[in-house]
Amino acid sequence: MKKFTIEIEIDQPRERVIELFDNPDNLGYWQPGFVSFEHESGEAGQPGAKSRLVYRHGSREVEMIETVTCRNLPDEFSGTFHVPGTLTVRARNFFKEAGPDKTKWISENEAESHSLLMKIMGLLMPNCSRNETENFMQNFKAFAETGADVRKKQ
To answer: pLDDT for 32-90, tens place per residue?
Structure first.
């Protein structure tokens, strides 16, 4: 299991960061390859709720199930992201005021590989999950601060 923490400062008030982060309609703006988000069970956005997320990686689609584990906004939003037979990521996201118009986003992650291929990839590319998470966070920062849209780069 790989554990890592990433921190980023966003030049927006915490209230605005939470408003953007908490809206699934915004995922496509900052998550490359995002295709869809579909709520499946439980009360949407609340602990225990499950949703299906679909991403396109090259010519294939990858589906993952998000399970919300904590919703204590504006301080914390956490969940588990499971790609069946492949990978599970537990992500704890904390949002702290870092000034009048600044927010610090702290993301604590644990990634666990379930397949031999993913375990080998983890050995060959040990920072892959960390790099992808950091990229998502940088994309979100650009989206929150300037309205940047990753779909325009694809």
So the answer is: 999 999 999 999 999 999 999 999 988 889 899 999 999 999 999 999 999 887 778 89
Residue 85 is assigned to a structural domain of this protein: yes
Q: What is the pTM of this model?
A: 0.88
Residue 153: inside a domain, yes or no? no
Tally of domains in the chain:
1
How many CB atoms sit inside 10 A of residue 63's CB? 14
Rounded-to-integer distance, Cα 154 and Cα 134, Å: 18
Q: Helix, strand, or coil here: 1?
A: coil
Q: What is the CA radius of gyration of the chain?
A: 15
Assign residue 70 the CATH number of its domain. Answer: 3.30.530.20
Task: Decide: 38 and 51 in contact? Cβ < 8 Å.
Answer: yes
Domain for residue 44, yes or no? Answer: yes
Q: Nearest 5 degrees, angle CA 114-CA 7-CA 53?
A: 45
